[in-house]
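Let's sit down with a protein and look at its sequence and fold side by side. Go ahead whenever you are ready, and we will take it from there.
>
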Amino acid sequence: MDVQEQVRLRVADWLARGGLRPTRQRMALATLLVGDGEHRHVTAESLYALSANGTEKVSLATVYNTLRAFCEAGLMQEVVVDGAKSYFDTRMDDHPHFYWEDTAVLTDAPAEELKIAHLPTAPDGTEIARVDVVIRLRRR
């Protein structure tokens, strides 16, 4: 099996895990996200810029909608920085992030070094769905 076929199968399997149809646009964007088997942190704008070099042209609105569909399907998670800037992460386990303020880049932080001793009790009728830890970095 050649590399292109391996990528196509990896992407099709990824979409199938989320119960999503493999449309041309989803396949094109998913190839950029998981085609090589590596994890990615992208913004809609950065994924749109990457897709401009491909053969399948997609609008920025389609990129936003597709990223939302990937999140709703449990294939990606959204990490919000500054209450307005969203990054989309293909790594689905619980892990902290570094946010590099000078470059506006989000990267994984070593989870084994993070210790959360206690979380506050959730209000009645609710449960904690997830805890996002974003550690902001600034160069000296």
Q: What stands out?
A: The chain has a mean pLDDT of 93.
